[in-house]
Amino acid sequence: MLWKRDKLFCEISPTCYAISMKKEILKRHVKNLLSDDKIAKTVIEDKLSNVVYSKSSNMIKRAPGVDLSLQENKAVNINIAGSKINGIIIHPGEVFSFWKTVGKITKKKGYKDGRVIQENKIIAGLGGGLCNLSNTLHLLVLHSPLDVVEFHKHSDALAPDEGKRVPFSAGTSVSYNNVDYRFKNNTDQDVQILIGCEGEMMYAELRSEREFPYTYEIVEEDHHFKKHGEKFYRDSKIYRNVIDRKTGEIVAKELILDNHSEVMYDYSLIPQDQIRA
User: Fold this and answer.
1) pLDDT digits (tens, 9 = 90+) for 92-120
2) What are the tens digits of pLDDT across the range 152-198?
3) What is the distance between the alpha carbons of residues 106 and 96, in angstroms, rounded to a whole number?
4) Max Cα separation, the chain?
5) Residue 6 main-chain phi, psi, to 5 deg
6) Could you tell me the CA-to-CA distances from 254 to 196, 215, 221 in Å, in that order?
């Protein structure tokens, strides 16, 4: 006879889930009050001179089974939250916090229902799609010497890949305010984040006062899908190459994620040649 675990309180009902979330939010508020972290708050219109890394992406995913209206709402949500981040300066020793910068998600601020993951299911929820924004920030940071101090992962297999596979295409989770994304500036110079949206496109840059001595490259190895029980997962290993700017030589190769992501879309859309027995 198989042992069946008791349900967690948050799994009993939607009301219990909401109570659990409020408890976690309160715990984060207390943690923030007790923290010694100096949170970045300075925003300037002028751009720092050096582009460390830039990223542009289409905010609207068009794929089988993907609700286009929720994708369009996602673009609205990213535009609102991105405007709060745009121009922020992170001084040496300061910590960037996604939620301390963006603030609470409310309808009054213009946020709409987008796709969110709740209890391992994709549903419509207020502010859905902001994980795409936090993931873009994570990509910027990974291409720099900045230190990630808080990172939460969710499945990066929410919908079929479009075109060439991009590691970390949508795998950084945020949820107000207990699931945060944070990084610290342990360098000797200011850095700045720029976020802008135009049409369906999001544009992001990480800037600094001057060049850093290294550049960074994200590579994915051993990418495949595999079935475990009744579910399919995307497996891969994601590395960061640290490259000496002067010589072009790789001086370090760091494993940054041993990826094991549950596929959250129709299994028939998984490329058959990428399934491993």
Assistant:
1) 999 999 999 999 999 999 999 998 877 66
2) 998 888 888 877 888 776 678 899 989 999 999 999 999 999 999 99
3) 22
4) 66
5) -70, 150
6) 30, 13, 12
